[in-house]
Amino acid sequence: MTEISQAVLDKAKTLDVKTHRVEVEVKDGQSVEIVYRDVLPKLGGRDILFLHGQSFSSEDWEKTNTLAIFFALGYQPVAVDLPEGKNSKSQKVDVGDRGLFLEKLITALDLRTPVIVSPSMSGSYSLPFLFMDPANIPTAIVYGENDRSVGPVSTTNLKNLPDHDELHMIKGAGHAAWKNKPEEFHLILYKFLLKETK
C-alpha cells in the first residue's frame, strides 16, 4: 500500500513556502497581477498547479502543508490566487477568457504540463483550459461525503469527462474536502500522481 512516509512529513516541516507576484497578460491591454506560492529551489520535479475555490486562496494550500509535502515528495508545487482572490486584488477575468488566462498563467510561471488541482469555483478556469485542447486528460474526481452544495451536481457532470477513471469520496468531509481532511486528500493525489507519471 502506498503511503506518505514519516520522513517526507518531517522534511516538509522544515521547508519554507515563499510568496511572489507575477503579471499575466490575458489579452491585448488587459493584464492581472497574481500572487503565488511555491517552495524553492526548483528541482525539476513534475509541476503541480493548485487553484482554489471562491472562499479560499493560495494560503490555504500552505496552511494544510500541501505545498511542502509535495515538494518533499519530489514534485514542484505552485499555488496561485486567482483573479479577484483575497490576495491578488486584480481585475476580473471574463468567463470567456478564463481558459486563455490559465494558459498564459502556466506560461508566465514556466510550468511544464502541470497537473492541475482545481477545487470548486476554480473549475471555471480549469475546464475551459482543458477544452481548449481536449485530448484525453486523466482526471481524478475527489469530493466530500457531506458536500450538499455543488458537489453532487459537479461530480455527476465531471464523470462525463473523457478520461476520468478515478472517483474518490472522502468520508466525513464537506465541500472543501481537501481542507477538511488534508491527509486523506494528500494520499489520493499522491497515488494519482504516481500512476500518471509512470
UniProtKB/TrEMBL annotation:
Its main location: cytoplasm. The keyword Transferase does not apply. This is Abhydrolase domain-containing protein 14A. It is found in: Cytoplasm. It comes from the Eukaryota. Keywords: Cytoplasm. It comes from Magallana gigas. One of its GO terms (cellular component) is cytoplasm. SUPFAM superfamilies: alpha/beta-Hydrolases. PANTHER family: AB HYDROLASE-1 DOMAIN-CONTAINING PROTEIN, PROTEIN ABHD14B-LIKE.
